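note to self — DONT lose this again. spent like an hour looking for the file last time. sequence + predicted structure for the chain T wanted, 78 res
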Amino acid sequence: MSRIALGAIALAALVAAGCGKKEEARVDAATGQKEALERAKTGAFGTQVNALENAKGVQADFDRKAQEAVEKAEQGAK
């Protein structure tokens, strides 16, 4: 047999061995995401993560102000 065939057989055996196991999640997805974000803020890319969080806040503020301006313009046109 060739190396590729042996590799494919070994991979299939590993996949088959792991299929029967079901691991329970320790935390829900939302909690895990929040915890990962907090770890990222203090990790190697903390500056970039914090800048991204600030940019999201600016974007939300901009969207809110734009929506208010649209609503005010619509009321003025009536």
